[in-house]
C-alpha cells in the first residue's frame, strides 16, 4: 500500500508506510492522506516515536 504525502516544499509523492514514518520523524512532510481526509502535521493527531505503546487505533492512511 502506498500513501500520498505532501513534502515541505509543496511536492506530492506516494510512499510506503515505513518511509512515511521516517519522513515524519525527519519533519520532511507537511501532510499525508488518510482514508477520510488529509492529516496535517502539527494540527492533527499522528503516531509518534515518543509514544512507547505505539499507535493503538485502526489504520487510517490511504492512497
Describe the structure.
- With 63 residues, this protein is α+β, with helices and mostly antiparallel strands.
- The protein has a domain at 3-40.
- 14% of the residues lie in helices and 27% in strands.
- The chain has 1 helix and 4 strands; from the N terminus they run ββαββ.
- It has a 4-stranded antiparallel beta sheet with strand order 2-1-3-4.
- The termini are close together.
- The mean pLDDT is 85.
Strand and helix layout:
Elements: E1 3-7, E2 12-15, H1 17-25, E3 29-33, E4 38-40
Antiparallel strand pairs: 1-2, 1-3, 3-4
What's the SSE pattern? EEHEE
What portion of residues is helical? 10-25%
State the secondary-structure class.
Answer: alpha+beta
Largest sheet: 4 strands, antiparallel
Q: Tell me, what's the shape? A: globular
The amount of beta strand, in percent, is 25-35%
Please report the total strand number as a whole number.
4
Radius of gyration: 11 Å
The averaged pLDDT comes out at 85
Strand order of the largest sheet: 2-1-3-4
Number of helices: 1
| Distance between the amino and carboxyl termini | 8 Å
Low-confidence stretches: none
In summary, what is this structure?
The chain is α+β, with helices and mostly antiparallel strands and 63 residues long. It has 1 helix and 4 strands, in the order ββαββ.
Amino acid at each position: 500500500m502506498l500513501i500520498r504525502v505532501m513534502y515541505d516544499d509543496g511536492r506530492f509523492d506516494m510512499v510506503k508506510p515505513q518511509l512515511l514514518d521516517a519522513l515524519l520523524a525527519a519533519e520532511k512532510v507537511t501532510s499525508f492522506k488518510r482514508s477520510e481526509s488529509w492529516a496535517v502535521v502539527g494540527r492533527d493527531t499522528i503516531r509518534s516515536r515518543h509514544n512507547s505503546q505505539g499507535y493503538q487505533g485502526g489504520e487510517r492512511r490511504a492512497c
